[in-house]
UniProtKB/TrEMBL annotation:
Name of the protein: Carboxymuconolactone decarboxylase-like domain-containing protein
Gene3D superfamilies: AhpD-like
Species this protein is from: Paraburkholderia domus
Domain Carboxymuconolactone decarboxylase-like, first and last residues per copy: 26-108
InterPro entries cross-referenced by the UniProt entry: AhpD-like, AhpD_core, CMD-like
Lineage of source species: Bacteria, Pseudomonadati, Pseudomonadota, Betaproteobacteria, Burkholderiales
Length: 115
């Protein structure tokens, strides 16, 4: 993981920089926001399922920042540890050893963001 050891701190630090980018790159950030909204809204799959898929991709891509934000959202959406672990298992199946390491990061983030 980055030099930042806690996911709440990590997502907070990234959010600060994203706000700065919104000020300097408003069109880009507005387009990214629209992309995120379109990619996570309810459709044939519910928002929670889409976020679980996004988490699996974040693990496969080894993006700690993405893991933090998607896990934070999943906790808010009421995801259970069992649901999370099923997604982690699939991510490990598809990505092997490196995905196993990042799956443990997602578990740590889940524990941190859970009440």
């Amino acid at each position: 993981m980055n030099d930042i050891s806690a996911y709440k701190e990590l997502t907070g630090a990234v959010s600060v920089q994203m706000r700065a980018m919104r000020a300097s790159q408003p069109e880009l950030m507005a387009a990214f926001g629209q992309l995120a909204a379109a990619g996570t809204k309810d459709g044939a799959l519910c928002r929670k399922t889409r976020e679980l898929v996004a988490l699996g991709i974040a693990i496969a891509c080894r993006c700690d920042d993405c893991i933090g934000f998607h896990v934070q959202t999943l906790v808010k959406l009421g995801t259970t540890r069992a649901e999370l672990e099923d997604v982690l298992g699939t991510a490990v199946y598809m990505g092997g050893g490196p995905s196993m390491m990042y799956a443990t990061h997602a578990l740590r983030a889940f524990e941190e963001f859970s009440p």
